[in-house]
UniProtKB/TrEMBL annotation:
Domain of life: Bacteria
Xref: Pfam families: Pyridoxal_deC
Keyword Lyase attributed: yes
Cofactor: pyridoxal 5'-phosphate
InterPro entries recorded: Aromatic_deC, PyrdxlP-dep_de-COase, PyrdxlP-dep_Trfase, PyrdxlP-dep_Trfase_major, PyrdxlP-dep_Trfase_small
Organism: Chryseolinea serpens
Name of the protein: Glutamate or tyrosine decarboxylase
Residues with PTM N6-(pyridoxal phosphate)lysine: K306
Keyword set, alphabetical order: Decarboxylase, Lyase, Pyridoxal phosphate
Gene Ontology terms describing biological process: amino acid metabolic process; carboxylic acid metabolic process
Entry keyword annotation includes Methyltransferase: no
Stated family: Belongs to the group II decarboxylase family.
GO molecular function, one term: carboxy-lyase activity
Length: 495
């Protein structure tokens, strides 16, 4: 019997088990006490670099247990914890613990989910996950799609599919520069910045975006949308796509998806829904009317790492006709021997990546672990807590509640004493609340983000957290008021 090859990367069964048990025990303790300390330490880059050290790359290796113990110390004592019950900033959820174990298993097998032959079971699990996600949000499980890194990539993937489907076919060979068609896309002024990136990256250009004003409810104004389409057609432009928001990132507003879908049918445009944040709420029966029209979408972006509580990274693009992704992304270089069977599903033909990690496993596992009823409960609870946040702000004499939609509440601190003139008052409140947000984020008692709504700089709390409770929301109100008073007092003393 030939001796086993020795390798610096190799770990014995005993060593792997020892380090693995230590890590799992450490993570278990961390998850059990995640709400006991601050959301973040607020340490500066200079401080963090001092903890990390500035030594050169080691010439020789170190033992795995020493490395892992140091990594645990660095991450558990010097991080921002988006799983903390008082983390309401941006839209990163508290990650389901099972997802961490699924990621470990995925990394151990290490399938390349770019080609079926390289990842036979992982490919089937991703296909099943895609079908379950479609079913979850209320569209046909025959929708196809692909798991990607997050919202930007999910929307980019759909954007190029729309361009392939609706732009002149000669663009694939000759490019946009050689084509006289002036392509335009339409979206609400509340649409996430991904649309600007996509227009720049993929040849539409910033002037190819038609930013449609919002109505009194924060939704894209349907009348103005149709006027813009008609005007562009009359002036020789080529409309290709309308983007509807299913939970815009600032306020959580869901556009009138049904009316947008009807306009897209009338004018033969691709209907894309950016539901990266909000579309999972479509699972709640009481919100069915809010999301009416989702089934008309040609493509939908959603992020399991937002409101399905998956660890990063996990985004998803769903398309009504999966062939549109193949038409957009499929290539067949001679060195690919990936199509020995017509039935093989090769994910490199569905998106940007050739080599792809196994993102689906953690989503697949959580969908089964929690179940539809569990998600209805958790998502519904997040919405209830957001509504409580809004009501408490309404009742407090030093807070102004601004908006509440889905699980997002916006508000601002408004001290009793402030400048008398309206213009000076608004400028002061904007400055005050921006300073308040920065202090809150540094101190780490709570982590909120911001939104600017009709010129008002607001604190924004987005609850996609299964650990947050009513007590946390009540304490957050107290923290905001306490710190707001301090900053206002400091400002008055300076003035």
């Amino acid at each position: 019997m030939l001796p086993e090859r020795t390798s610096p990367a190799r770990m014995s069964k005993e060593e792997f088990r020892k380090v693995g048990y230590y890590l799992v025990d450490s993570i278990s303790d961390f998850m059990d006490r995640i709400g006991d300390g601050p959301v973040t330490t607020g340490e500066t880059s200079t401080q963090l670099q001092a903890f990390l050290g500035t030594t050169s790359l080691p010439e020789t290796g170190m033992t795995a247990d020493v490395i892992m113990k140091r990594a645990v110390d660095l991450l558990f004592n010097h991080s921002l914890f988006n799983g903390h019950p008082k983390f309401l900033g941006y839209i990163t959820s508290s990650a389901a613990p099972l997802g961490a174990l699924a990621d470990l298993l995925s990394a151990a097998v290490n399938p390349n989910v770019g080609a079926n032959i390289l990842s036979p079971m992982a490919t089937e699990i991703e296909k099943q996950t895609i079908g379950w996600l479609a079913e979850f949000i209320g569209v046909s499980p025959t929708y196809g799609g692909i798991l990607v890194s997050g919202g930007n990539m999910a929307n980019f993937t759909a954007f190029l599919a729309a361009r392939t489907a609706k732009a002149p076919k000669s663009i694939r060979q000759d490019g946009i520069a050689a084509n006289d068609a002036r392509l335009v896309v339409y979206c609400s002024k509340a649409t996430h910045a991904w649309i600007e990136k996509a227009a720049f990256f993929f040849g539409i250009g910033a002037n190819g975006i038609r930013w449609i004003e919002q109505d009194d409810f924060g939704k894209m104004h349907i009348g103005l949308l149709e006027q813009a389409i008609k005007r562009d057609l009359k002036n020789g432009y080529t409309p290709i796509m309308v983007v509807g928001n299913a939970g815009d990132v600032s306020t959580g507003v869901v556009d009138d998806l049904k009316s947008i879908g009807a306009l897209c049918k009338t004018y033969n445009l691709w209907f894309h829904i950016d539901g990266a944040y909000g579309i999972p709420a479509a699972v709640i029966p009481e919100l069915k009317n809010v999301f009416a029209g989702v089934e008309d979408a040609d493509s939908i972006a959603l992020d399991p790492h937002k409101w399905l509580y998956s660890p990063l990274e996990a985004g998803c693009t769903l398309v009504k006709d999966p062939q549109t992704l193949i038409d957009t992304y499929s290539t067949h270089p001679v060195y690919y021997n990936f199509n020995s069977s017509e039935s093989q599903h090769n994910y490199y033909e569905y998106g940007f990546q050739n080599s792809r990690g196994f993102r689906a496993l953690k989503v697949w596992a959580a969908l089964q672990h929690v179940g539809r009823e569990g998600y209805i409960n958790m998502i519904g609870k997040n919405i209830e807590l957001s509504q409580l946040f809004f009501r408490l702000a309404q009742r407090h004499p030093e807070l102004e509640a601004i908006t509440q939609n889905l699980s997002i509440t916006t508000l601002r601190y408004v001290p009793a004493e402030r400048p008398d003139d309206a213009k000076g008052k608004e400028a002061y409140l904007n400055t005050l609340n921006e300073a308040l947000l920065n202090r809150l984020q540094r101190k780490g008692d709570v982590f909120l983000s911001n939104a600017v709504i009709k010129g008002k700089y607001c604190l924004r709390g987005c609850i996609v957290n299964f650990r947050t409770t009513e007590k946390d929301i009540e304490e957050i109100i107290d923290i905001v008021v306490r710190e707001g008073r301090k900053i206002h007092k400091e400002s008055v003393n300076v003035l």
